[in-house]
Amino acid sequence: xxxxxxxxxxxxxxxxxxxxxxxxxxxxxxxxxxxxxxxxxxxxxxxxxxxxxxxxxxxxxxxxxxxxxxxxxxxxxxxxxxxxxxxxxxxxxxxxxxxxxxxxxxxxxxxxxxxxxxxxxxxxxxxxxxxxxxxxxxxxxxxxxxxxxxxxxxxxxxxxxxxxxxxxxxxxxxxxxxxxxxxxxxxxxxxxxxxxxxxxxxxxxxxxxxxxxxxxxxxxxxxxxxxxxxxxxxxxxxxxxxxxxxxxxxxxxxxxxxxxxxxxxxxxxxxxxxxxxxxxxxxxxxxxxxxxxxxxxxxxxxxxxxxxxxxxxxxxxxxxxxxxxxxxxxxxxxxxxxxxxxxxxxxxxxxxxxxxxxxxxxxxxxxxxxxxxxxxxxxxxxxxxxxxxxxxxxxxxxxxxxxxxxxxxxxxxxxxxxxxxxxxxxxxxxxxxxxxxxxxxxxxxxxxxxxxxxxxxxxxxxxxxxxxxxxxxxxxxxxxxxxxxxxxxxxxxxxxxxxxxxxxxxxxxxxxxxxxxxxxxxxxxxxxxxxxxxxxxxxxxxx
Length: 543
Fold this sequence. Notes:
Protein name: Malate synthase
GO molecular function, one term: malate synthase activity
Number of helices: 20
Shape: globular
Helix content: 40-55%
Organism: Lepidopterella palustris CBS 459.81
Strand order of the largest sheet: 2-3-6-9-10-11-12-13
Family: Belongs to the malate synthase family.
Pfam families: MS_C, MS_N, MS_TIM-barrel
């Protein structure tokens, strides 16, 4: 006999504003599903997050990671593969990414791309309104009822061709959704985002010829992938959907996950749609995990390109691993946005995009990311020229032999400069100011910056202060020097900003993160309470 929904919803509360739109997404039935997910998996999630801290303590003592001896049999076996590509995921040569506001959803789906990654994570600030409205916008887009008018302009989905395949990115395991509690605990942001999207849309997506597809961020081990696989199996069983209908692409954006690529695909194999090179988060992870180790100090961010040894090794290993297992190896982000008032600068920026995409397709990637529709044409032209097939799964890269030392090779030419310090401060402050206003994707210096690039900036500043690095100008980076430059940059930005900006608050939080002392695991976790609007609880049974 099935459990009574009222019993399941006992001690389940909503602490965010409720209205008719909210209830369309967060129905009583959806709340039951979320509560089941939380009770089934939150204990494992918290244990895996604690495991990250144990591993961090080992790294702080000088331990260096290696491929796991206990999973050698998985890596060395040729007897298993991931799932064959699902409908709508065979050809993914250009994917556009961005937040889930209604205008972005329409513009992304109208772009000349193959898929759209709708992002609840790094390019979204997780206010209650952003998360709920994002779910509503995707619900409506899937049903082709997302059109709206803003002022004199109509925003409508195109009808002249098949729309790009939709992929949703949920928040990482570390984030919580404080506006929905179960038994007095906030639900995981991952389970909230996944649960609402899957429960409301999975069957409709299958009817329309695709399926419930996801990007999974910030994982650090195959055990975290196993947890996702368990979530997927329960979810599909719950609604009577065949297992394997869900597909998920994992972002390899942490140094620890780079040592477990085979194992991550293996854990998700019936649900796997490949891996992706999350380049900026990967650099952030390298700095974060080895922040106490002076051998891992990196130069100015601009010097850490995709061709430096540790990044090149990571890309090659990812492509080889994916293609050996029959799944897609997706390339990274082109974050540039058009420079409309400077044709020469714009031409140079677009040439860099072309060069980056050419590197990716020649390496064997099956597709790539862009942040702006204007870049889709460049990426498409490069991949259409050099990848006439739907993908390159047949490019096995058997010439590649990557060792642990290759993944940890920090031989990166370049210097730390005062200009580089100031640029990191500008990016960190600029992004944090936007995030505190509820904006998760901020254009800065003609690049679309999200949480990952702000994390690189923040972590480099911490690292340089911690190890008292000497700049190219001969200045030692100390706590006092870092704070002096931060206050100078914060004042310059605040003076130019409109009234009511959040630069003062951003600077207050940033000061705690650039001195080589305190270090928050994630900036977004550090700032989250500033954008929550927790109201008096409403029992989910009353939805």
